[in-house]
């Protein structure tokens, strides 16, 4: 044990040496000096639009942020797994169910890897999916409205990290567990991990028309850590690849104990084969408890349903469906090139970058060239599946993307750089420093058969001196590179929000065309909607008071309400009657224990207020909607519990 610790400490010193020398080199701010025409390349004139959308995961913000490229301007933060007071997401009665789980209401999440839906291997801009790591969930965002419309919890999973990547026709969005756990969960000693814990890889089907998600099956794998994954495409469509680490199955001091094996594995899963098995009734329905939350665009309301079982499959039930490809040293990223032939395993502690060949893999399987097995799963020979390796490209490889022109780009965390290399010859073509310690990188369409390789951006873990200091906490920075030429050219730094792990990006046109401007008031099926001023009313049901309220420039209807009592639960159901693009109204009530609401044209949202004090209390519109926005206000008279003030409401006249 002592020796292990020593080795580990030595390794940390190596890392520290590299990190600090790199920072020293660049902290004078000059090593990022740029050619003079660079500004033009990122300049988007006022009123003009960016060429690309970029969707950056928010990491521990739980959300997804939307940027334009090449400008690096941030357009929106889409709330996904975290409550968002700016719009009322997760606070309004309609959206609270979106954050329901088997552990109850969870106000926060850790989002990592967004992926855009695909048709025939090309990104189609319909949906974007993103995973929640901590309380395993997968969310779907509709790119017509940029709203989170579905969240499904993933049972039997813990640290949902090798997620959420889609197959080439969005047949599945795939979610793999990082931590193995007892399945089903039970009370057992942690030291009995080895051989007893398991890792679930979940295949969540996506209905072709509606996009509705459903867990089709889970494969119960050995108790390794499943780190990242990518779909096969083209010739390898039908397969999915997952990197693993901790094939040692250690449960303590993993930084040492999970770095013992010379090689871990990439797990290759023939999901088509398992799908066929399941379609014929294969697998076992296992009791489970997980939430499926769906937002209905017509009622503007989410519902949460608890699901009670899930189909599980053991690899041994489907011979020939699962194989292990030995891959050096705790691989992190698992990336498949646009042709589907090459599978890159980014071994974090490996000197070389390993690339496997899909064709060779099939060959080795066919000829049964196995080096052994792990828990009954055949292990292929490293040499038999190796396409090639990039020799000593850098230190600490994490992720690889492709430009569609035969080149790959890999990030190196320790040596803090992006390295461009050639598929097939494995030669290094270029390297550019990142500032500092890059994690993921993104090329628009990078995870598809047709990357749109004009730009690449690196998402860095350490910011230090890149921006004006903002106290101890700095936003992470991203760096945009022009990759249209032979050499990568640094164009721009831009700040990000939360911790962007991965990002998905694509050309703007498809999304722009389909973007929705308003919600049709006629289609509003919210049970508490008031579609005209004539529908507005106030209804008491015991101690619940329901206010059917409308907004239009520049008043609330009603704007005076009396007869509310201390201890009541007051529901403001607010329908925005506007039918113009970009005219939301806000709603805020004094002393409210939640957030404001931002109600889009044609939409209905509900906020609950529980008045605790007698008085006349104002509410107002929070969004500057017209020249008379400051006039957009109203009062609620709150009387004592035992008062007999009658329930009355009005607009434009005094309450008699
Ligand atoms: S992981 S770099 Cu989710 Cu690589 Cu963040
Ligand atoms: Cu409505 Cu301000």
From TrEMBL:
Family annotation (PROSITE patterns): COX2, PROKAR_LIPOPROTEIN
Localization annotation: Cell envelope
Enzyme class: oxidoreductase
Name this protein carries in UniProt: Sec-dependent nitrous-oxide reductase
A molecular function (GO) term: nitrous-oxide reductase activity
Pfam families the UniProt entry points to: nos_propeller (PF18764)
Organism: Psychroserpens burtonensis
InterPro entries, per database record: Copper_CuA, Cupredoxin, N2O_reductase_N, Nitrous_oxide_Rdtase_Sec-dep, Nos_propeller, NosZ/Cyto_c_oxidase_sub2, WD40/YVTN_repeat-like_dom_sf
Domain of life: Bacteria
Secretion signal, residue range per the UniProt entry: 1-24
The enzyme's E.C. designation: 1.7.2.4
Keyword Acetylation belongs to the record: no
Entry keyword annotation includes Signal: yes
A GO cellular component entry from the record: cell envelope
